[in-house]
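Chapter summary example.
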Amino acid sequence: MEFGELLEIMAEKYLETDKKSGDLFLLAVLMEEVGELAEAVRKRDIKAVEEELADVCFVVFSLANLFSLQDRLERKIVEKYIENDPSGRWDLRE
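The structure predicted for these 94 residues follows.
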C-alpha cells in the first residue's frame, strides 16, 4: 500500500470523527501515545514498541488529514529526510 493511499483510506474511515474531536484533542492523544511509546522503549518491549509506533503514526496521519496535508506530507518527508540529510546537524554521541 502506498503512503498516500493509506492516508486516503484513513481519511475515509476517520476524518469525520477527527473533525468532531478537534485538533487539540488529537494533539493530546498524540502526546499520550508518545508517552506510551517512551515507556515501551524504556522497557525494551519490542511488541509494545510496535503497538505504540502504530498508534503514534495513526494519530500523526489523523492530524495530517485534519489539516488537509495528505498530498503534501509525503513530499515534505522526502524533501526533509531523503533529499536533504539533516543527520550532520544532530548532536550524536561518538
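To summarize the output: The CA atoms of residues 31 and 56 lie 9 Å apart.
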